[in-house]
Structures are given as C-alpha cells and as structure tokens.
C-alpha cells in the first residue's frame, strides 16, 4: 500500500483549519494584550478602548452572512485564502493607527475581514467529512482558536514589551499571508477534485457524507428566507448567549485581572491564558461527546445535551467568580465558565451544517453574526457597567442569566430538520 494512504487527506485539511483558527485568535487577542501601550500612545480612555474592541465585533458580525454566502458560491478554497489575506493586511495596518478614529476604522475592517473564517470552514467540513465525524472535527477547529489565544497572551505580552505594539502587529500580519498562500495551493473544495487523495478514502467520504454529491451552491438565498426559519432564529439566540460569555475572555479579562489583582503584564498573560486552555478542553470534550451520542443513534440528543451541559457550567462559573478574592480563585471559576461556554461551540456549528447542508456557509455565518452582536455588547457593557455601578458583579450576573436562557432555547431546536422545513 502506498504510504500516503496511512494518513487520510481530510486530516491534513483539519490541520490547516486548526492552524487557521489558531491564527485567527492570535491576531484577535493582540489588541487586548496591547491595551495599555496603545491607550498611552494614542491617549485613549477605557470607554474608548471598549469602542475599539466593539468595532471589531460589529464588522465581524455584519459580514458573517455575506461571507458565508460567498463560501457556498465560490468555494472555501478561494474565499478562505482571500479573507485571510485581507484580515492580515488590516492586522498590519493596525500598527499605523495614529488616533482613536483611525484605530476604530482599522479594527472594524479587520473584523469584517475575519468574518468569513468559520463559515468557510463549515462549508469545507460539509464537503470533506462524514456526518459521524462532524462533532470532533468542529471541536478540534475551535480548540485551535482557544489555544491560539492562550498561546498568544504571554507571547504577545512579551513581544509588546520588548519590540513594541506596532512591530507586533506587523509580524502577525506577515504570518497570515503565509497561511493564505499555503491554503490556496494545497487545498481543494471537494475530495473529488484532490489529485493526491486515495481512492479508498474518497470512496469512504462519498459513501458516508450527509449528501453523496456536493457542488458549489449557485442558488441565491436571501436573509428574508433565512428569517422564516425557526431553527435559524433559535441558533442565533443561543449563540448570542454563548459569545457574550466567551468574548469577555478575549477582551476585558486580561486588563481586568491585571488591574484587579495588581499583576505584572506577563504574569497577567499567563493567568488569563488558563481559561482559554480550558476552553480548548471544552471543545474537545464536546466534540467527542457529540460523536459518541450520535453513533448510538440519537442525533437530536447529540447536539442538545453537550450544549445544555456547557451553558449550565458557564452560568455556574460566572456566578462563582463573583465570590473569589484572589486571582487564582477567580481564574479557576472563570476556567469552568469558559470550558462550559466552549462546550456549546461544536454542537452549535454542527447544528448549522445539519440544517444548512449546501447552505451551511450562509447558515453558520448568520448564526455567528448574532453571536458577535453578543460580543459587541460584551465589549461595551463591561466598562460601562463598571463605571455606572463600581462593580463587575452585575456583568457576571447578566452573563449567567443569558446562559440559563440558552438552555431553554436549545430545548426547541431540531437538528434533523432543514432550515426550510422548521
């Protein structure tokens, strides 16, 4: 047997999307780590930095559905290579910001550039992976984003301190361009088009895929059509709740822990990385749980149980963090919260591919749009609530309540039904 058949080609694709998710969050979290020197250089207040962080989420949210539609129409090969090149350019351009307005515009465009990453991955997964492998693959991809953020916190903190925040943004932009070139030349939209895939693996994928034959989707789908789907609205609602919790870890957790407990920059980076590592574990565990329940013949439970368990843990962790009086205690409880919040990701994205099929890019993009409206609100509400009340407790209580609401939402979701049917 040819040795190249021992390692399936679809696993190489997962390695590529894992690295993409890692890079996505390294670039995204850099602004949080560099908050202090940026604020000092550009003379920004905490509220202004809140708007800078929120500008990313707004751009990211608004371009989710359009980028998902493009992935369905033109294929994830061209779209992912293009958007990574675009967002990498805006990552580098962040180094050229000279005031609040310029930074606001660049971060909005950076968010718009990143918008197509996960919808593009969803379309690639639909094309390349059997239904029974969908959970673990999604979990691996999202764990890359969490490990990327965790790895970036101490590393970027060191780079910012030693080389400056402007140089750090330039270096990260260059790395993204390298990934885009590799993806374009090595990936193909369908296994049928890949010249180096074995016939055995191709036959396995085609016989176990959700749809036996896939093609680029030339059918136009409007937001009006999506808005008639109950499944679509429910997916959007629960993902709003999930992102409200997780985005805190990407934006305000680092400056909050550093200021609240009087930590040094690198020390705060290490502490803040811990919940993100737990987030990766949450993704892996949920992905494993999804596939194991699905293999036992319960498609509905394979999505609902991991998501509901995750939201319950997120609520417990957020409330518990209020009562901690040390950095270690707060991080322990927030690690439980982020583990739980990230358990909701694999079922959410698997659900989008379930109900979207050939429209999985548009469906997942629309869900992620709603999620990042939650992220947009998180970036703003934390500093404003702190200013109005003098306490962070109110933010964590709001987050816990949203997690409980999400459990109720999941009870109404139907993964077996196409978005045009329910």
Explain how this protein is built:
- By secondary structure, the chain is an all-alpha fold.
- Helix content is 79%, strand content 0%.
- It has 19 helices and no strands.
- Helix 1 packs parallel to helix 8, helix 12 runs antiparallel to helix 16 (327-343) and helix 15 packs antiparallel against helix 19.
- The chain is globular, with a radius of gyration of 20 Å.
Task: State the share of residues found in helices, binned by percent.
Answer: over 70%
Give the termini separation. 47 Å
Overall geometry comes to globular
How many β-strand runs?
A: 0
What is the mean predicted local confidence, pLDDT?
Answer: 84
Count of discrete alpha- or pi-helical segments spanning 4 or more residues: 19
Q: Which strand-content bin applies to the residues?
A: under 5%
Largest sheet: none
pLDDT < 50 runs, ≥5 residues: none
Task: Please write the string of helix (H) and strand (E) elements.
Answer: HHHHHHHHHHHHHHHHHHH
Report the radius of gyration as a whole number of Å.
20 Å
> Which class of secondary structure composition applies to the elements?
mainly alpha
